[in-house]
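ARCHIVE RECORD
Type: protein–small molecule complex
Small molecule: flavin mononucleotide
Source of inputs: curated submission
Record status: active
Notes field left blank by submitter.
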Amino acid sequence: MLYHVIYSSRATPPLTVEQLQEILEDARAGNEKRDVTGALLYIDGVFMQVLEGEKDTVVALMARITADTRHEDVRVYHEGAVDHRVFGSWRMAYADGTPAQLSAWAGLPGTTTLDAILAELGRDTTRASAVARGILGAIAG
Ligand SMILES: Cc1cc2nc3c(=O)[nH]c(=O)nc-3n(C[C@H](O)[C@H](O)[C@H](O)COP(=O)(O)O)c2cc1C
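STRUCTURE (tokenized, with ligand):
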């Protein structure tokens, strides 16, 4: 069964450009092995990631990722079966962005701080899928 997870987390400070690059390399290598696709968004110390693949694979990978000490405060907004991959062409697409972009994607134009946006995403999980589409738009150009 094709499955996805959308979560956010906070980078364990200080996160250098090199460390971010290393996380992406680890992710791409791991996902190649597992036939997982997805996207990683990084905004002001906050990660938002979409993982797509076989259910058992994604659940097991999510457990490893959650245990990774390079980030903390992992919050899952949505997980479940999906009919198709949104990021099928990317082992792990990368995008950076601003809180304003994230709030626009989430349909929360009046919500300006990252903390407030994440709190709203937690309240209404349908917004997480909208964010995934926003990330896709940002990386697809
Ligand atoms: C924010 C973040 C996102 C990550 N995303 C992935 C991912 O998509 N795929 C992956 O295999 N590892 C990902 N990792 C790395 C894993 O946590 C872990 O380091 C990697 O799977 C290697 O694990 P191992 O050393 O136990 O084999 C991510 C780590 C962080 C901090």
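CURATOR ANNOTATION: Strands lie at 2-11, 37-43, 46-54, 71-81, 93-96.
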